[in-house]
Amino acid sequence: MSEPAAECANPLFLEWVTEWYEEARKRNAKTQYTLKKACTSLERYPLRIEHAQDAVQLQGIGQGIAERLGKKLASWRKAQGIAEPVRAASAEPRATSSGEPAAGGRARAPRAYVPRYRSGAFALLLGLFKTYCLYGADYFVPKSELVPLCEPYTDTPFHVSSGAAQQSAWLGMKTLETKALAERQGGVKFSLTDEGVEIAQKVVEVLRARNELSDEDGRMFAAFAERTAASEDARSPSSDYDGFADGAGPAASARPRTARPVAASRSSSAVSFSRQSSAAGQVELADLTRYPAGSYDVILAVDSREVHNTGDRALIEQELEKQGVRLEIRPLVVGDYLWIARPRAAAEHRRLPDVVLDVVVERKRMDDLCASIRDGRYREQHARIHAAGFATVFYVVEGSDPDAVARLGEAAVSSALSRVQITNGFHLKQPPTFEATLRLLRQTTELLQSTLGDLYAIPDRHVGHHGLGGLKRSVRARHPQAHLVISVDAYDVVCGKSTTLSVGEVYLRMLMAVRGVSADKALAVGSRFPTPLALVRAFEADGGVGRIGDIAVDGTSRKIGPALARRLEQFWTADSF
Questions:
Q1: For residue 334, is pLDDT > 90?
Q2: What DSSP string runs through 296-342?
Q3: pTM metric for this prediction
Q4: Are strands 189-192 and 182-185 parallel, antiparallel or unpaired?
Q5: Which residue(s) pair with 427 in the sheet?
Q6: How far apart are CA 168 and CA 155, in angstroms?
Q7: Residues of the chain above pLDDT 70, percent
Q8: Which uninterrupted H or E stretch holds 112?
Q9: What is the end-to-end Cα distance of the chain in Å, rounded?
């Protein structure tokens, strides 16, 4: 922690904010940038601040930071035996955004900006809050995914002709950024700030009171509120906000940033999951929960991001619902389509939770596949599917796009499709249209309904945030006839993107950055050499490449192999790249 400047008029505030900034910087949290601005403003501000709420005049200090300062100041005064001063009407000059006091005028408690009801900014605020609820604080959503989430909450179109660009609802994003409610990453992806989350929560409360939320959004927001309530240390937001204003609203309340939230599940059981799944030897068939054949219905779950407009919905209804396929549109953390087994109401097992079957579909259009190869999502998505341990993975590449293939290179696309089948073991399907994809889903659903027998659910107590894929593969190897499933809660929590990574997890991701190193192979190498230093020393020793090439991949007879071992050696021991 750096020492506050001697000439600072508010050394305690500067010291505390600097401390918070250093903590956020070490965690690489987004709040570090706001706290850095707050430090600069406090250093420049020449007047003494008696009440923490007056600090909101400074750039970088919002209501949340002001309340933290107020609590810290109250504790300090109590420890020093100093009485809390009586707050009178302030005649102190207002500060400019750079921290300089304005000439004349009285300081006013600023009111947080709230977008006008059903404006573009209003819809974008809610759309960004949806992604926050689903994927957490660190997820930046691209425009193509964000717009479908926003469209139900505005009367202004997002897609307009070039001559009417000034009428696009997307202009509201600039407003949100100007008001510090949203921020962008790389110019093309967006996320809410802390202040944006606080305002969005209040907007959702009003919409819920007016009954203007869809059933799906209402369940999602309610589940998010339940998850955050348990870990909320600060007081809940004030409830005196009862309507929408054009550019004005209540002061936001402090709300601690929580771990990445996950999608709400229909089983709604409150379960906490350990960091590591149980070892394979600790789970036997007798430990699993049996779902007898005929006691459950098979339901196709469709990722809500796959339904972009009413045209997609109409196609889904025509090809699936009208053909007798039960489906449910919900956010999916892994895959675009999967199947859920739901106990029938009349069955004696009706109290059992919904479970996720061991089959998943990842769908991509050809242009999306090329883009994911280019930006690295291709590898990351494959690693997450593999880590979830699905027995059957259909990788659907839909349609053709010669221009996108030509831009990336035909050889690169062919190589990627080959890796899908050979390295990852996925079943590649290349239907020409979305309708053909839906027919494939309908046929797969009918096949599951007619062939599935007893299901065996791995209890949640054995499921952890890591090692699920290895656990399922090991149990499957000992009991090949058992169709393994996990609860919907376990799928939502365990298969979601993690918020923070341990040093060991970063090491495994570094291993997987080498072409040809799958999640299983990275785990095999990491278990033998738990640190980068141990791995480098092994390569430097005589016969190091041979020893690493002979490492067996857990649960299989495969080995790392000499070619991949030499590639790892080059990656970890090269002086330069």
A1: no
A2: EEEEEEEEGGG--SHHHHHHHHHHTGGGT--EEEE--SS-SEEEEEE
A3: 0.45
A4: antiparallel
A5: 394
A6: 10
A7: 77
A8: none
A9: 36
